[in-house]
Write a structure and sequence with these properties.
Rossmann fold; alpha/beta; 3 domains; binds magnesium ion; 13 helices; Ubiquitin-like (UB roll); binds guanosine-5'-diphosphate; Helicase, Ruva Protein, domain 3; six-stranded mixed sheet; about 375 residues
Length: about 375
């Protein structure tokens, strides 16, 4: 399953985001270091199910809203100098290592300082928080490089292995690929003569490639629009969010007060409410209408579909009825990387199916496709296999 980390300084709203997205119980409090262990939960990306377009009735979606599971990790809060082990620095960085993509939750209301302590609205520039996360990550990678660099350079000159492979190997565990290293080296120059500044630049290039992230400009329910706009001007994917509103809506929905589907821009009240509750919900309604939703679902979708470039494919066993062998219509919606081929899909479904792959069929066109056909978003595919 795709793993997404939620990063940011204390009190930015990470745990609220996590809880809203997963509905797993976590501690939420207005003081630093609330999250000690990373919380892991299941969230979902939302996509439009293909059942309607195909004219079939499936049981996997809610009126065409199809949710596909991803893993979410609520990472320990980041404080300045985490790379030196301050706060829960090491845990923080270790947790992020597992993530394929990161949602950086930023307090767009500017009402928490660098350490997460409460201050007045707009007293902190949220753009600083973005810069600061990058700097911490860069310094962390730099320190690891620095510790190993002399040895790496020596080995490159002695052994006849491509430097990018050797460096990737030496940084094992950080998840850098040979391609990440090669591309990053290309940006800088002769690595055997790297100064500290160049090594830091190398660390930055590596981070950019390995640690892909989007920014959730959180607390929009109280953030001044100038601050949200400042964040939007960054050369990043920025999604305005209110984790707190999403959590309120999900909770109200769970308790039967409203009908609300994550990612919707509205909800329906379905139970008698008192005046105060009704007013609170109407206030929320205005905010999410204006923002086009709470942003939480959008943030998860952006990470998976835009940042990490996944697409959705529907494997079926019956290409005429779009069912599995038991007659379930469109039983699976799978997230696969853009560029995945039909044969690779067979392996992703099951190793045995991959090994015994014969050919694949595009169920929409009822046509055989080549083994190296690159899957497109919303393809419905039957794999023919002798397994
Ligand atoms: N107004 C507002 N407050 C929020 C929002 N998200 C989180 N908070 C509040 O910010 C504080 C810190 O939240 P928490 O999720 O524990 O932050 P974490 O330390 O980053 O995990 C809590 O008081 C939350 O209720 C939001 O979208 N809007
Ligand atoms: Mg927390």
């Amino acid at each position: 399953m795709i793993e997404i980390g939620i990063a940011g300084k204390p009190n930015a709203g990470k745990s609220t985001f996590f809880k809203a997205a997963t509905m797993v119980d976590v501690e939420i409090a207005n003081y630093p270091f609330t999250t000690i262990e990373p919380n892991v939960g299941v969230a979902h990306v939302r996509t439009e199910c293909v059942c309607r377009e195909l004219g079939v009735v499936c049981r996997e979606c809610v009126d065409g809203r199809r949710y596909i599971a991803v893993k979410l990790i609520d990472v320990a809060g980041l404080v300045p100098e985490a790379h030196k082990g301050r706060g829960l620095g090491n845990e923080f960085l270790d947790n992020l290592r597992q993530s394929e993509g990161i949602i950086h939750v930023v307090d767009a209301s500017g009402s928490t300082d660098a350490e997460g302590n409460e201050i007045g609205i707009s007293e902190r520039d949220p753009v600083e928080d973005v810069r600061f996360l990058y700097e911490e990550l860069d310094m962390w990678i730099f320190n690891i490089l620095k510790r190993n660099w002399d040895r790496i350079v020596r080995r490159v000159s002695m052994e006849k292995i491509p430097p990018s492979r050797l460096i990737a190997e030496q940084l094992g565990g950080l998840g850098f690929t040979e391609v990440h290293v090669k591309e990053s080296l290309r940006e800088i120059g002769d690595f055997t003569k790297f100064s500290d500044a160049e090594l830091l630049q190398f660390a930055r290039e590596l981070r950019k490639r390995r640690m892909k992230m989007i920014i959730a400009a959180n607390k929009i329910d109280k953030a001044p629009s100038e601050l949200v706009e400042r964040l939007k001007k960054l050369d990043e994917i920025v999604i305005p969010t209110s984790a707190e509103i999403e959590l309120t809506l999900r909770t109200a929905s769970k308790n039967g007060y409203i009908t609300y589907y994550p990612g919707d821009t509205d909800f329906k009240i379905v139970k008698e409410l008192n005046e105060k509750q009704r007013k609170a919900l109407e206030l929320i309604r205005n905010i999410i209408k204006e923002n086009g939703g709470t942003g939480v679902q959008e943030a998860i979708n952006k990470v998976v579909f835009d940042l990490l470039e996944y697409i959705v494919v529907y494997p079926v066993e019956d290409e005429n009825k779009y069912t599995d062998s038991k007659g379930n219509v469109l039983p699976d919606a799978m997230l696969v990387k853009k560029g995945t081929t039909a044969k690779e899909l067979a392996f992703l479904i099951h190793t045995d199916i991959g090994k015994n792959f014969i050919h694949a069929i595009d169920a929409r066109r009822k046509m055989r496709i080549s083994d190296d056909y690159e899957l497109k978003n919303n393809d419905v595919i039957k794999i023919v296999s002798s397994a």
